[in-house]
Write a structure and sequence with these properties.
Layout (H helix, E strand, L loop, with lengths): L8 H19 L11 H17 L3 H14 L5 H10 L3 H12 L4 H18 L2 H19 L15 H13 L3 H8 L1
């Protein structure tokens, strides 16, 4: 409520920090004892806190939370590392995480990794690479969307729109208005 409805990000972070503190005092999570604890709650607290850290532009802290999460839980949040690294200007590291996620067996990580690579190249100002990575992300999403069931709920469908928009913007950056128009449609 504090984050989404009221936009009180620092207050929300304070409460998430306290929730994490209470959980970790009681259960002292380690890889060895996860099965004996309500670990899903802890994972959700960490995920929400790292998301909020990003919104507060505390990217180093976000990376610490992601690393801590990955030390305990699978699947690892590989692609999620790319965003704060990109925003810190650490493009080579960000690319490595995005590429690793793109090669993952997890379809969500693959999609997010490709989208992150598109964003990294756009942020880095490498126009040809930007266009190539955004087009690859779009092609991957469009191919996955072919197997979406016709009567799926909206949150069960492959999100092609974001990838198409990103690729269209990148197409304009490399002076390909014909391709931008095709992707926009």
């Amino acid at each position: 409520i504090l984050r989404r409805a009221e936009g009180a990000l620092p207050k929300a972070m304070k409460h998430l920090g306290r929730a994490r503190e209470l959980y970790e005092e009681k259960y002292q999570p380690t890889v060895a004892n996860l099965q004996d604890t309500p670990w899903l709650l802890h994972r959700e607290i960490l995920y929400a806190a790292q998301t909020l850290a990003g919104e507060l532009e505390r990217h180093e802290y976000q990376l610490q939370l992601l690393d801590y999460n990955d030390s305990l839980y699978d699947p690892r949040l590989t692609a999620e590392h790319a965003w704060p690294l990109m925003l810190l200007g650490r493009y080579d590291e960000a690319r490595k995480y995005a590429e690793k996620a793109s090669e993952s067996r997890d379809e969500f990580q693959q999609s997010l990794g490709r989208n992150a690579l598109c964003a990294i190249e756009g942020e880095a100002g490498t126009r040809d690479e930007w266009f190539a990575s955004c087009t690859a992300a779009y092609d991957y999403a469009a191919e996955r969307a072919k197997s979406d069931k016709p009567f799926s709920k909206p949150d069960e469908l492959t999100n092609v729109t974001v990838h198409a928009y990103n690729a269209a913007v990148a197409a304009m950056a490399v002076l390909r208005p014909d391709e931008a128009e095709r992707l926009a449609k």
